[in-house]
Amino acid sequence: MKSFAYHRPTALPDAVKLAGDPGADARVIAGGQSLLPAMKLRLSQPTDLIDLAGVADLNGIRIEGGTLSIGSMTTHASVGASDEVRRAFPALAALAGDIGDRQVRNRGTIGGSLANNDPAACYPAAVLGSGATVHTDRRSIVADDFFVGLFETALEPGELITSVGFPVQQRAAYVRIRQQASHFALVGVFVGTGPDGGVRVAVTGAGQNGVFRVDAFEKALAQRFEPAALDGIGVDAGMLMTDLHAGADFRAHLIGVLAKRAVEQARARTSR
User: Fold this and answer.
1) Residue 29: partners with Cβ closer than 8 Å, 6 or more residues away
2) Could you give the number of structural domains in the chain?
3) Which CATH number fits the domain that encloses residue 19?
4) For 3-27, what is each residue's pLDDT tens digit?
5) What's the domain range around 218?
């Protein structure tokens, strides 16, 4: 691993200043579950590492009106164990409590997961599927504009995620088939009905360009929110990826199966 300067700011303005230093090739470390392995393999070799763990303002969970706000440095374990999240958005609590293993859940953070935007990560499906908003030190970015491609987001150099605002869902569920070695989603489907009654369906682990919405599913479920509404509707395998774990055709089949399961779970579970 290449040597680097280590910084541990305790205030957000200091972290923003360090991250925006034009004279350094700085990387921000949230939970470090993706960055540190990349550094060990020398796939990432920053000159400066900015640890956000000491910035208290980036941690915490609160309800503001009809929005569940989660600080970017809040760990997966904290989201999964939060009574507030379990009451307001049980599908999100269930999703967070099943990410990775204990180490990943207790070190990984929601902000780090979203900034990394792994194409098989679970949080992007929840953010896109619920119509959440990602707040940064500069602006607010709606979910549909945030995810750009594989490991790519709308974040600009030096821009830091501060929190994520989730509209409290009328009903929602996330169902996935996990890849047993990595615990990432082979395919994961999030289905949610928002405060305005609109239906959103987001898929992770399958798209060639990362997480994506399924418009045909959304239209069908808006008319009739039950598994049978998806009969005869599929996802084009041509837009899905093939790798050593599964082919595009198999992933297309799984998306339909998991979407129906998610609808069934959502019907049995209300978020308020």
Assistant:
1) 35, 36, 49, 50, 51, 52, 53, 112
2) 2
3) 3.30.43.10
4) 899 999 999 999 999 999 888 899 9
5) 171-268
